[in-house]
Write a structure and sequence with these properties.
It is built from twelve helices and ten strands. The radius of gyration is 21 Å and the shape is globular.
């Protein structure tokens, strides 16, 4: 009998990861590629195709499979920004009997819960909470972008830090060391110069979001304003999670809530998030079981009607 192979791909703003599994649920190959979140222009499409094909080819090499001759039984690919502008391209470049193209929150959830019901809170550059119950019903809260949403995400946390620095400089806000830390990190002359730099292409959103770690650093030095900002971000993320819980699960039903994203590297923020979430009856904060590429592979098996438990899953970090 000819063996069947399954593919899971996590396509993000910084990298693309592919996992290949056999027909028993064992991961046999992993590959990485570049970012693949934009496909609008010709250059973006070329980068997208190169990233997907590159990581799948690398996974085939590790699995000792001939990429040119391989046709997957089932493939699931999840992307930041959703599937709308990518699915037709993928069907041209990836041979698969079944293909499921979805958004990154679903595969992150599936990986975090090993395919089970629950909720994932993602707080990287932006933020979103996404959940699925045992009946397969899904719900989301947040994820509406840096202008109208993304509360508690890295960009929003940096924005709040800059606002606090501006208030302190103008004399109507509490003193904070965030001003000098932001200036030192960026090389700006003053807060006014910093603000103008943030409006240029020199500082794309991910770079601004990465500066959110300074808020945690400032809290470690005893800065009261930084502590307030971290507490507020934790509160926002908790509210997103509980909004999804309310829509999908009974009040007394046990629910696991997983977390992922750079913002949760803050021990204070993660601790406060956990404290507030677990005040709700039968609600528990858990580390993710697997990464999003493993979640995509789980969804590939699910699409084929298989409920395999994954084995030999590599670390996606």
């Amino acid at each position: 009998m000819t063996p069947s192979y399954f593919l899971g791909v996590d396509g993000g703003q910084s990298s693309t990861t592919a996992l290949i599994g056999d027909d028993q649920g064992r991961v046999i190959g992993m590959g990485r590629g570049g970012p693949c979140n934009h496909v609008g222009a010709a250059e973006g499409r070329a980068k997208f195709v190169g990233a997907v094909q590159g990581c799948v080819h690398a996974a085939c090499v590790q699995a000792h499979l001939d990429a040119a001759a391989l046709r997957f039984h089932s493939a699931c690919l999840g992307f930041s920004g959703g599937p709308a502008d990518k699915e037709s391209i993928l069907r041209e470049i990836l041979p698969a009997e079944q293909m499921f193209v979805t958004h990154d929150a679903l595969i992150a959830l599936s990986g975090a819960t090993a395919g089970g019901p629950g909720i994932i809170v993602i707080a990287g550059t932006g933020s979103i909470a996404f959940g699925r119950n045992a009946e397969g019903k899904t719900a989301r809260a947040g994820g509406w972008g840096y202008i109208f949403g993304d509360e508690g995400g890295g960009f929003d946390l940096t924005r709040q830090a800059v606002r606090a620095a501006l208030r302190a400089e103008e004399g109507w806000g509490s003193p904070t060391i965030l001003s000098e830390m932001l200036l030192g990190e960026t090389g700006a002359r003053d807060v006014n110069d910093l603000l103008h730099r943030f409006y240029t292409t020199e500082f794309p959103r991910p770079r601004i979001a990465a500066l959110s770690r300074l808020v945690d650093d400032a809290d470690g030095k005893g800065d009261a304003v930084a502590r307030e900002l971290l507490d507020a971000a934790a509160t926002d993320l908790m509210r997103l999670a509980m909004a999804v819980r309310q829509r999908l699960f009974r009040a007394d039903a046990p629910v696991n809530i997983a977390y992922v994203g750079g913002v949760f590297r803050s021990e204070l923020l993660l601790g406060r998030f956990g404290e507030m979430v677990e005040k709700s009856n039968a609600t528990y904060v858990r580390r993710p079981a697997y990464g999003p590429a493993a979640g995509a592979l789980i969804e590939a098996y699910r699409s084929a009607g298989l409920g395999h438990t994954l084995a030999d899953v590599p670390d996606e970090k």
